[in-house]
TrEMBL record:
Keyword annotations: DNA-binding, Transcription, Transcription regulation
Pfam families: HTH_18
Species the sequence originates in: Flavobacterium hydrophilum
GO terms of molecular function: DNA-binding transcription factor activity; sequence-specific DNA binding
Lineage: Bacteria, Pseudomonadati, Bacteroidota, Flavobacteriia, Flavobacteriales
Protein name: HTH araC/xylS-type domain-containing protein
Length: 286
């Protein structure tokens, strides 16, 4: 059983992993604004407002949603069975701190809802959790089981998730017009992702990847981003940095050895990349 809360300045991360023998019902009332990003990895929850003019929220197994309620007054239901979730509650100030002067340029209808103090949810129904966020969530759950985890890590993970979410707000029209991949194309992209993980120590080009699966470079880049939510080499950098952080946390290798393990021949280049990604130098973990 896991039920953990991590408190940051302006945000709370709630990680749940337990079984529910029978449905649980909670009366929820809150007069202050409520902003939440909710990932229901396993299980099902739904919120039914007491006021019929407010929005109802249902998030089922493998789905997520982002919503804002000026006030909260209703009933929250946890359905019975396995429940595994990551929930991020944050203040408007926390989000503004991330995006600064660009907030209203990229926040779309969410920003308008904040201005007008009207309810907002990103999708009418819960959206399937994309693979790029599933990887981050798996790491969050894994790290939540540690006795101590640097708060810098937690803040970084929230920021990464919010950056992804706000990029989707910016191009929601584009999402609705995405081309569906065939079964063969999906399998090809999965092969590319496997190749990236197997070649974490080696340099590899988009041309080599395209040749490997028999797809042109443009189509490969487009399809990979559609499946994994980010460009190929952003994804490769992320898995390299996450692998490096994991090795450094185990304290079994020095920084030069870790740099080599994740594909950097020059330890200084690795240190620069690590700091750019996490916001602190790798020696902090040592």
């Amino acid at each position: 059983m896991l039920n953990k809360r991590v408190y940051l300045d302006g945000a709370i991360i709630i990680i749940n992993d337990f079984d529910i023998n029978s449905p649980l019902v909670f009366d929820i009332k809150q007069d202050s604004p409520f902003i939440k990003l909710h990932f229901e990895i396993e299980g099902k929850i739904n919120f039914v407002p007491n006021n019929s003019t407010d929005i109802a929220i249902t998030i089922e197994n493998g789905q997520y949603n982002f919503f804002y309620l000026p006030v909260v007054n209703g009933v929250l239901n946890w359905h019975s069975g396995k429940r595994k979730s990551v929930e991020i509650e944050c203040s408007e100030e926390f989000i503004r701190k991330i995006f600064k002067n660009d907030f209203y340029k990229i926040s779309g209808s969410f920003g308008i809802a904040l201005k007008e103090k009207t309810s907002f949810k990103m999708w009418e129904k819960g959206e399937k959790i994309p693979k790029v966020l599933k990887t981050i969530l798996d790491n969050v759950i894994k790290n939540s089981q540690e006795k101590e985890t640097d708060l810098v890590y937690w803040e970084y993970e929230i920021i990464q998730i919010l950056l992804y979410m706000f990029s989707k707000m910016k191009d929601r029209k584009e999402i609705n017009s995405l081309i569906l991949l065939s079964g063969i194309e999906q399998e090809q992209i999965n092969r590319v992702e496997t190749t990236l993980r197997k070649n974490i120590q080696n340099s590899i080009t988009v041309e080599e990847l395209a040749l490997k699966i028999g797809m042109n470079r443009y189509k490969l880049n487009r399809n990979f981003k559609q499946v994994y939510g980010e460009p190929i080499f952003h994804y490769l950098t992320r898995i390299r940095m996450e692998k490096a952080k994991e090795i450094l946390s185990q304290k079994k290798m020095n920084i030069s050895e870790v740099a080599y393990e994740v594909g950097y021949k020059n330890p200084q280049h690795f240190t620069v990349a690590f700091k750019k990604y996490f916001g602190y130098v790798p020696s902090k973990l040592k």
